[in-house]
Amino acid sequence: MRPDWLLIDGYNLLHVVDELVALLGTDLQLARHRLVRMVEGTAHRMARQTTIVFDGREYGQDAALTSRHLEIFYASGKNNADTVIERLVAKYSNPGKILVVTSDRAEAHAVLSDGAQVMSSQEFMAQCAIDSRKPIAHRMRPGDKPKLGDLFPDGL
Questions:
Q1: Which of 48, 23, 62, 39 is nearest to 124 (CA)?
Q2: Residues 6+ apart with CB under 8 A from 110
Q3: The dihedral formed by the CA atoms of 125, 127, 132 and 133, expressed in degrees to the nearest 10
Q4: Max CA-CA distance within the chain?
Q5: What is the dihedral of CA 120, 121, 126, 131, to 10 degrees?
Q6: 3-class DSSP state for residue 61?
Q7: Is 63's pLDDT higher than 90?
């Protein structure tokens, strides 16, 4: 069953990619940006809507990285990403249509008990790697047309 909503624990996923972990100490914003670019094609193919939730000092949506199908959200200081994800699942009318990407066992247990599906961060990034090697036409939803960013994801 294809989920309606993909909820991703941003820093949990970021820590699965060695090159991004190395960036964390020098350029946190670039590490987050690269993570979004790595996952957006797979996320778009897997679910109608994707929300990546990061812990952080920022709060709310990141308009620079948010698109029609992908939302970047920063948890407030009093709530971490895990809490935000767990609350979103608990409040959703059909939690069985949510897929949460995390390798945090406590978070996975909490959202599973509310009826959501869970995929490990490692499994999700492995799928992203497989998808990135596919021709562009195979990475897109039927009827979609490639954009310049699909052809040159790292810039010109």
A1: 39
A2: 82, 86, 89
A3: 130
A4: 45
A5: 100
A6: strand
A7: no
pLDDT of residue 131: 83
The pLDDT confidence band at residue 148, using thresholds 50, 70 and 90, is very low
The pTM for the full model equals 0.81
- pLDDT tens by residue, 107-142: 999 999 999 999 999 999 999 988 877 665 454 555
Q: How confident is the model at residue 156 (pLDDT cuts 50, 70, 90)?
A: very low
Q: Over the range 49-63, which residues count as b (16 or more CB within 10 Å of their CB) and which as e? A: bbbbbbbbeeeeebe
Q: What are the DSSP E strand ranges found in 4-156?
A: 5-9, 49-54, 60-61, 70-74, 98-101, 117-119
Specify which residues 8 forms β-bridges with. Answer: 52, 101
> Among positive and negative, which fits the CA dihedral 58, 63, 64, 69?
positive
In angstroms, the CA 85 to CA 105 distance is 14
